[in-house]
Specification:
Length: 170
């Protein structure tokens, strides 16, 4: 079964504030899902690059790289900026290369700690920041923090499905 490319995905933005706790729970659970997915997988399989695409550790490295940039988005909402910061993924190559050589447990722990920090910061936003809308120049849409967390959770699921496909040839 084919996985829709991330750039072709259409997300259901516009969810209400009451969806935020569920979306945060989903986003916060990604690290546990990574542990479960990669348990007992040999190192060779974690670094395998099928068809020249990303390996499992590179997918995880990408999630870490993106997580660092998402903290800047929380800053944007907290400051009620009219536009969200641009996330430039063209500079992630050296980070992915570095992650290729790291221990899987260390990678997942780094991701877990960064994601927990992100979730905590979102929960601590004041009500005005939570209701604030800003333009996401990458997507060309107006978003709230709820939309941002939906984006994060769906993006995580996309990469988890891609990793599962590498492991199990789904």
């Amino acid at each position: 079964m084919r996985i829709t490319p991330w750039s072709d995905r259409e997300l259901a933005f516009g969810k209400g504030l009451d969806e935020l706790p569920v979306l945060l729970e989903r986003a916060n659970g990604t690290a546990a899902r990574l542990v479960h997915l990669t348990a007992r997988v040999p190192r060779e399989q974690l670094t395998l690059r099928p068809y020249g695409r990303w390996s499992i550790v590179e997918h995880i490295g990408h999630l870490i790289y993106l997580q660092d940039r998402l903290d800047e988005r929380v800053d944007d909402f907290a400051a009620r900026r009219p536009e969200l910061c641009w996330i430039d993924l063209s500079t992630q190559g050296p980070a992915l290369e570095r992650h290729r050589n790291q221990d899987l447990g260390d990678l997942i722990e780094e991701f877990r700690l960064k994601r927990e920090y992100f979730v905590r910061r979102v929960k601590e936003l004041d009500p005005g920041a939570v209701r604030h809308r800003a333009i996401n120049r990458c997507r060309g849409v107006s978003m709230t923090i709820v939309d941002t967390v939906l984006y994060v959770a769906d993006h995580d699921d996309h990469h988890l499905a891609s990793m599962r496909r590498i492991l199990f040839h789904d």
